[in-house]
Amino acid sequence: MMEAMTMNAAELTSRFRIAGVVEFAETEHGLVKATVARAGMTGELYLQGAHVTAWQPAGARPVIFTSSRAIFAPGKAIRGGIPVIFPWFGPHPTDPTQPQHGVVRTAMWQLDQVEQSAEGVSLELSLTPAGFALRYRIVFGEELQLSLTVQNTATGAVSFEEALHSYFAVSDVERVAVSGLEACSFIDKTTGMQLCPPAGAPLTLSKETDRVYLNTPDSRAINDPGWGRRIVVATAASASTIVWNPWPEKAAAMADLGADNWRGMICVETGNAADNRVHLPPGGTHEMTTRITVDAG
Ligand code: TA6
Q1: What is the pTM for the complete model shown?
Q2: Domains along the chain?
Q3: Cβ distance 45 to 51 under 8 Å?
Q4: For the segment 13-32, what is each residue's pLDDT rounded down to a tens digit?
Q5: Pocket of ligand 1, beta carbon within 6 A
């Protein structure tokens, strides 16, 4: 992968700081993060992986979940937030030595632009893994807007999978319901990748859940009566929705999650995976977007 022109916190500060709105710091772990604050809204992004780790609209509870046991270290995927998954979802299709969920969530992305507008604070990042050019735009505002654009820079056609692997904070994963997927078939990763028919009802979780919903609509919602709110995930050019919670036994085996953390999160991921993988001609581009909002439900 062509190394991005990554900068340290001091260089980023000099070039992009907006006093009191966008600040940069090097953490004790040697990672560089941006903190965003405006009119009561707060957000956080690590340059490694272009990884959003926090977003909290003014007056609301945190919307994005990051594990209290997350390990922040160079080359280590952060447990929680919104990992960027590309160019394969899950294990590599043929090479078991390759990392799960692709190569960009632990790569050093280049920060190209920071701007303020009426809709919020936008950060634009880029990365050029072999054969591709990625651009990722994040807008932290009263909505969280994410846009991942992939360009095929190879001389032949390519195909890829992608996901914005969003972890959402909930009162209790056993009390929420995910709507918008009622009419969608899904691949159940807990039963050997079985293709299952539409459930015909909102999804409630009562056990380990790991599903790739196919050909999903452009809006789904996490209804959370425990916190009297609904998290709405609106998308464009995303045909797959992945829903995951490991449940306590698997969570206990994850050092960066733990049996005491699983109940407060649910992943509802925006992607194009499995049958919905994206095909691009030489020079072709594809833009997937997601817009996250919170309301009273
Ligand atoms: O999106 C669900 C999933 O594919 C699960 O199978 C589980 O592996 C999860 O991602 C987390 O993967 P990670 O590599 O971040 O531990």
Answers
A1: 0.97
A2: 9-288 (2.70.98.10)
A3: yes
A4: 999 999 999 999 999 999 99
A5: 77, 90, 100-101, 165, 189, 210, 242, 244, 267, 269
